[in-house]
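DATA SHEET
Item: assembly model
Revision: 1
Owner: S.N.
Input lines:
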Amino acid sequence: MNWFISMMSSTIGRKLIMALTGLFLILFLVVHLSGNLQLLKNDGGESFNTYAQFMGHNPLIKVVSIGNFFFILLHIVYALLLTLQNRKARPVGYLSETTKTSNWNSRNMGILGTIILIFLVVHLQNFWFKMKFGYVPLDDMGYKDIYMETKEAFSQWWLVALYVVSMVFLASHLAHGFQSAFQTLGLNHKKYTPAIQFIGKAFAIIVPLLFAIIPVMMFFNLSF
Amino acid sequence: MAVLDAKIPDGPLAEKWSKHKFNLKLVNPANKRKYEVIVVGTGLAGASAAASLAELGYNVKAFCFQDSPRRAHSIAAQGGINAAKNYQNDGDSVHRLFYDTIKGGDYRAREANVYRLAEVSVNIIDQCVAQGVPFAREYGGLLSNRSFGGAQVSRTFYAKGQTGQQLLLGAYSALSRQIASGKVKMYNRTEMLDVVVVDGKARGIVTRNLVTGKIESHSAHAVLLCTGGYGNVFFLSTNAMGSNVTAAWRAHKKGALFANPCFTQIHPTCIPVHGDSQSKLTLMSESLRNDGRVWVPKAIGDKRKPEDIPDADRDYYLERKYPSFGNLSPRDISSRAAKEVCDEGRGVGSTGKAVYLDFRDAIKRDGRNAIEQRYGNLFDMYQQITGQNPYETPMMIYPAVHYTMGGLWVDYNLMTTIPGLYALGEANFSDHGANRLGASALMQGLADGYFVIPYTLGDYLASNKFEAVNSDHSEFKKAESETLATIQKLLSIKGNKTVDQYHKELGLIMWDYCGMARSAEGLALAKERIRTLKEDFWKNVNVIGANEELNQTLEKACRVADFIELGELMVDDALDRKESCGGHFRVEYQTEDSEAKRDDANYCYVSAWEFKGANQPSQLHKENLVFENVKLSQRSYK
Amino acid sequence: MRKLNLTLKVWRQKDDKGKGKFETYKLNNVSEESSFLEMMDILNEDLATKKIDPVAFDHDCREGICGTCSMVINGKPHGPLQTTTCQLHMRSFSDGDTITVEPFRAGAFPVLKDLVVDRSAFDRIIQAGGYVSVNTGVSVDANEIPIPKDIADEAMDSATCIGCGACVAACKNASAMLFVSAKVSQFTLLPQGQPERHRRVQKMVAQMDEEGFGACTNTGACSAVCPKEISLTNIARLNREYLTAKVTAQEV
């Protein structure tokens, strides 16, 4: 086990955790988005509530969701560890940080991550917490009517605005994180890396954009 | 003259080294760990020697003044390294490499040493490849070669234009491995300031820690000086800013003879001087002459842009004068030819001290891509320095001081006249005669370090008895206090002129009178001026700060003080040698078509100078050179 | 030829213990043909004439290959061009410019004086494994093992690192990954490096961490300032090599 401990305590090992948890969360985003897009279906929330019922009661999903929280936690803890270590690596800074040779988001993943974390807390408190522990009326099928809850929530303009803005930060975080994860895993090849980078950029734009569209459309009572 | 015994083994030339290796005494493996060896300098010679000796089991202490052993100036060698591999099947052989080197050196080098160099050259390439040096390769996966000045075969191995870097990093990695194993103790940012001789044997050195200023002694059973050349005596040269003669000079003052100090190589392809604030000259690899054509306008005062001058009005003077070698003529010949056309007033550029090196035809012939492949990084470097694009307009080049063939006198075993004190690489005089061929310096440094010293040092250690001496010995204490006294003296002058001012003045004197063309009259004048400069230096130099700190002015002052003394010896040597040979050109001695005219009857010797005390004339000893295997002839590259 | 009048803000620090601060110096009539270090020489000559301690800075070959020079100029290691400080020329600046000159900043590169830093951490990383363990005297012919040209070229591109430390200086985490990856890549690519492949990468990374360099967050700042344009591909390769070595090497 020595090798494992030494690997995981090395800078590269820590980055490995960041990359793997990051990629898992990226996958989670896809699943989460595909479910949430059902909010935009013009069926009074039927399919969405069915989906929510399934997600809330399927034992496998339950395990995965615990894993999901665990990975978020791991992502945060290792981000903190790395940030502390990186801060220590440069005790005295520069006077003139005028010339920048890298992208802003790549240098500020910690700040972006923190903003996303704050959003996550608000988001969980709004929906997940309420669904699990609060009172939610039932719909015609006898499922918890999360759809109505969501609709109500997104009738508040400021919450919609918060969601939209947060998605911009998520996009920025993903734009670096996606391809960075592959770099950290050492998955680099002359032929495939350009594709990974392209997909990363596309993902970082499309996924947060679709997420952001949901509250906006619900606010304006639009649906498909 | 009995002081100089070169200890050249008997027997036929081709068998001398193998026979000698067999005759050398060996140190038994268990005893090797009882010996301490000091290696000063971590360039190709130093790093390879330190690593090889440590691998054998000796305890090595290695020193460099740079912040890391990897920075030694060998790193800057661009073009390549020669080896008689004959991979190209173009007629190369150990004997041909030997012959080219002897001839290139204008018959002023020892046959036996040069033959050995050619012999071990093949092992160097094997060694370096095994270390992971990424030499250039062909598509078939085999090593690539190119040709170089002074040779008609392709025997030069290279790694882009950074061959010196790759070879040095190879030696540095071998050294690092030994540092990790504990067999080498490495002292970075530490400068050697004296050799300590106890009972007639070199037993250690005195150093200054360049960060704290601490003067320290280190004892050993033998001391290896691998401290490079002294080209910086000219202030402007292609050497690194820190390259200096101090270690060799202090050894000289302790009794080691200094050989052929006036043999300096002026490299033909350097970027011309831009102005007063210039601090160093940058070499453009000689390999450029493989494809570049050297020319000046035919007419004096032709101020047209080079691109606008038609071939009919261009004088490709190297091709004209030396049709068979053309642009690949040896360095001394090419340099002098450039000086000649500039002296005629046909030089180009703002100072008139430059000639064109034109790639127009090569680009037309092979395409821009091929040229970029071969010289891309050199072209980029040129553009960065001059702001001109050599793909579009010819480069401008001018000769600059590059290498010093002279150095501490050593015998066949690389030992100086002080027993136990060795000199390797550029720091010794042994292999290049009066002129070094391109791509031979790397070869010599590594030959000395990897393949010669591991054998010859063992013989010395095995055949001598050593008293127990440590750094508390009175000779060490004496040397320490003398070193400190010199430093205190320099610090106490507090005069009005900066160290660089003196260095620049010295450089100008040397360049004007002891540079590419020398005359009895000029040399006499130079001697006078150097004396005055020296007196003034010790009265009026301004060295700011204290010893007990990182003090770069003090470092420089110590080095310049030694350069001034060396300059005088170089002038003496140039005065003594009343002939022209290789890099030493006395205007009084030239053929009708202005070529160097050797005087084999009277000057076929190595001048080895003995220090006789401050302000005393040095004493000349002569080691007569015997040529049994080559016929001395007027060098012809026509 | 243009002449420049400049204001220089230079970090001055007496020794490794002292606290440093910026000093401002005026310098007039600097030729644009001068290199940046020649401009520093002029400053130092000027200071020396005024009996002020000249600014200590590391430099040696002045042709861009030894890797000794090491300043951060206007916030960028080696200044505005992607080259070494010694190859930077004053034509890259304008008359009246204020130029800030600072030492490389990293915990693993302590300042020794003014602009001089101690980069021996790099040496120790190489000592940990940046070599092929062969003794002098190998008798395998150099052409015994053919190496495909593209592999040899790629190894050369990695081996071209000059160990200046600009990558560390530019990285917001003061990470040395680019330096380490360049050496690891060179030997990983070449057949000669194979026997020690796993051992080397583990030891070098362990030493890198021990020296206190930060982690790589893939910002790419290192490669963007690298005078030898060492690419980020090397870092990916280092990650791959390290993780593979850890997972597959025989030792437990």
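QC remark: Chain A has a mean pLDDT of 92.
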